[in-house]
Amino acid sequence: MNDSASPSAPVTREDGTPGQRPRFGFGSGVCGLFLAAGNLVSVYVTFLAYMATPAGPWDSETVAHSNIASGLVLLLSLGMALLTWVCVKAEWLRRWWYVLPAVMAVAALLRLTLFVPEF
Question: I need a labelling partner for 54 at 20 to 30 A (CA). Which of 48, 60, 92, 104 fits?
Fold first, then answer.
């Protein structure tokens, strides 16, 4: 019988210290739902920021709204990254969840810098 498959078997972490197997259960589900909802909001606001195109040279409000939406995505990404850190630190979620807020932050920064709507 293989002892490494046992849930109570000791596990060695990446840094060489002994640890426990990650606990996936109710906390994982709650964190996953909150993070999925927050990241969906970030995706939607990013979509709105990228779809905003000025109607003409007089339409500076559209550019301002796109910048505001991108700034909101940066704040949402920061919040999602902090919530992800809490969930990963509690070993409810895996580290790949950090990718989602990072991608949203990069998309918002690109909209604010390289892909700014032009008049």
Answer: 104
